[in-house]
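Tutorial handout. Part one gives the primary structure; part two gives the three-dimensional structure as C-alpha cells.
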Amino acid sequence: MENEPVMSSKSRPEFGPYYMPDKWCLDRYMHTEEVRGTLDLPARFYVRDTTIREGEETPGLSMTTRDKVRIAEKLHETGVQQVDIGYVGAQQGHYETAKLIRREIPELAITGFARVWSADWQRDVDRCQELEAAQVDVLQHPILIWASDEQVKELGPAREALIPRTVEVIEYAKRCGLRVAYGHPDVARTPWEILREFYSVTARAGIDLLILYEDGYGCPPGVQHLVRKIRELVDVPLMIHCHDDLGLGTANVLAAVGAGAEAADLVVNGLGDKGGLTKLEEVVVALETHYGLSTGIRLEKLTELSRFVEEVTGFRRQINKPLVGENAYIHEAELHVYCIVKGLWEAMEGVHPHVIGQERTVVFGSTTLHGEAVRARLDVTGQRYNSRDVELILDKLRERLQTQPSLTLEEFDELARTVLA
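Part two.
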C-alpha cells in the first residue's frame, strides 16, 4: 500500500541467503544483484592453515613437534585439508614435523618452501619430494625491493640473477613431479613493473599457483585492484596470504576473494609475528555466510578449535574476540537482555552461537537496570508482578551488584522469587 508505514510486519527479514533461521541474519545488501555484480567470486575455495608455521613465529611461543601434530589433527577434524609446514629443507624441526604428520595423518596434505635466494634450494625441493608434499612454494628474495645490490648479494644471487634462478627452481621442482607455487613477498608495496616481470616469467615456467604475500600494510581496495590486475596478466590460480599489522587482514583476504582469489593462508586465533596473520575463524564464517562459498570447514568445530590452540600454545585469545571469544555471546546491556530473553536473537546477534559451537550467556549487571529486561524475564518465567515489584527487584539487584559484577539468569530468578514471595 502506498501509505503503508516504513516499519511494518513486512520489515522482518525474509528467509534467504542472508537470513537462515537459527543460523544467521546478516547484511541483506550483500546478496543484492547490485553488490554481487561487483564481485568476481571463484568457483571453488580452499583454506591452507599455517598455524603450525606462522603461528610458531609469535614472539614467546614455542611448540614441540608433538604439539604441532596435535594441532594438525584438530585442524583435520575441523575440515582443513592442507597445512603449511614451512622450511623443511632448512629447519630440522619443520622436517621432523612434516614426517610425523605424513605418517600419522596421511590424508592431510602438507606444503613446504624452496628458497630462491638460498644455495640449498635444491635440498628444499628434494625434501618436499621425499615427503610427498602436495606442493612446494618457491619463495622469492624477502627484501628484494628494500635492499641495496650489496645487501641482496649477502643473502644469495645478485638481483639480476634472481629471475633465472627462480625459473631454475621452478623447472627443477616440476621435473620432480611436484605441484609448484610461486610466492612473492610484500606485494602491496612492490612496484607493478617488478611484479609483472616475475609473474609473467613464473607463469611461463609452468607454476600451478601464485601466492600473494601481503605483509600487513595493504588496504582492501588496493589488494582487490592488485588481484584483478594479476588475473588479467596471467591465467594462474591465486592464493592470498595477509598479515594483520594494521588490523586489515580479514578485510584484505575478503577483498582478494571478491576479485577471484581461490585460496587463503589462515591462522587459528590470528597467531603470528607482529600483529599476527589473518584469523581462520573470521574468514571462514564470512565466506560461508556473506559470500556463500563452501570452504569445507566444519563451522560447528571452530570454537573448539580456537580453544584447543589456546590450550596447546598457552596464548590466550582476547576476551572479546569476534565469534570465538569468551565475551562474544555474553549479553548484559538492557536491550540485549530484553531481546535475547524474548527470543529475538536476530536483533542482537548475526550468527547463532550453535553454528560455530559457541554458547550464549545472559547476565544482569550494571547496564541492565532500566526495567525492560527485568519485566521481560518475569514475563517469560510466568511471574505475576506489578510496577512496585519491578522497583523492588531493581533495588535488590543494585544491592547485589555492589558485591558481584553480574548475576546469572538463575541467580536473577532466585532474587525475583524472593522479592515476589
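Part three, for discussion. Residues 330-420 form one domain. Residues 82 and 420 are 59 Å apart (CA to CA).
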